[in-house]
């Protein structure tokens, strides 16, 4: 998938588990071409923070401390500022019903938190490298 975005890609994470959130934040720190611009653990906090910190990539869980990821996606759908986001769900709730609903709400990628962490990280590495500026050798 080709995403014409400027480096570094701004990532916003919405995850209610502090343990999982810290693991993801630590993992994202060493991926070239992406930068974490914020995180939240609830639907309302995410909306407030996203208004202050627009992002290119939105990673969210379905279960949140308050509200849920599906409701958040519905609310974001009414705001054109979020139209170009790459949306990724990273969740334990992986039923076909959630997949279908998420796709209808603009989610391009859906990863199972229990078994597809590496796959999501590889996607972020790929997106980061495609957004990273290419270096040209300097003429000395």
Task: Give a concise summary.
By secondary structure, the chain is an alpha/beta fold. The protein has 5 helices and 5 strands, in the order βαβαβαβαβα. The protein has a 5-stranded parallel β-sheet with strand order 2-1-3-4-5, with helices on both faces.
Which oligomerization state do the chains in this entry correspond to? single chain
Shape: globular
CATH class: Alpha Beta
According to CATH, what is the topology?
Answer: Rossmann fold
Biggest sheet descriptor = 5 strands, parallel
In percent, how helical is the residue content?
25-40%
Look at the helices and sheets and give the structural class: alpha/beta
Distance between the termini: 37 Å
List descriptors.
single chain, 140 residues, alpha/beta, Rossmann fold, five-stranded parallel sheet, disordered C terminus
Structure description:
The chain is an alpha/beta fold and 140 residues long. The protein has a single domain (9-131), classed as Rossmann fold (3-Layer(aba) Sandwich), CATH 3.40.50.2300. 39% of the residues lie in helices and 19% in strands. It is built from five helices and five strands; from the N terminus they run E-H-E-H-E-H-E-H-E-H. It has helices at 18-28, 43-52, 69-77, 96-104, 117-131, and strands spanning 9-14, 34-40, 57-60, 86-91, 109-112. It has a five-stranded parallel β-sheet with strand order 2-1-3-4-5, sandwiched between helices. Helix 4 links the parallel strand 4 and strand 5 (109-112). Helix 2 (43-52) packs across helix 3. The longest helix has 15 residues, at 117-131. Residues 134-140 have low confidence and may be disordered.
């Amino acid at each position: 998938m080709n995403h014409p975005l400027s480096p570094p890609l701004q990532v916003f994470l919405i995850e209610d588990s502090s343990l999982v959130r810290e693991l993801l934040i630590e993992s994202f720190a060493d991926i070239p071409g992406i930068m974490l611009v914020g995180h939240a653990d609830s639907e309302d906090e995410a909306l407030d923070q996203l208004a202050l910190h627009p992002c290119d990539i939105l990673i969210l869980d379905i279960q949140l401390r308050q509200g849920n990821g599906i409701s958040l996606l519905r609310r974001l759908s009414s705001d054109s500022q979020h139209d170009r986001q790459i949306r990724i769900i990273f969740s334990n709730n992986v039923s076909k019903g959630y997949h279908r609903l998420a796709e209808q709400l603009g989610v391009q990628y859906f990863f199972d938190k229990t078994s597809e962490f590496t796959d999501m990280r590889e996607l972020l590495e790929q997106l980061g490298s495609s957004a990273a500026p290419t270096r040209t050798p300097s003429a000395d």
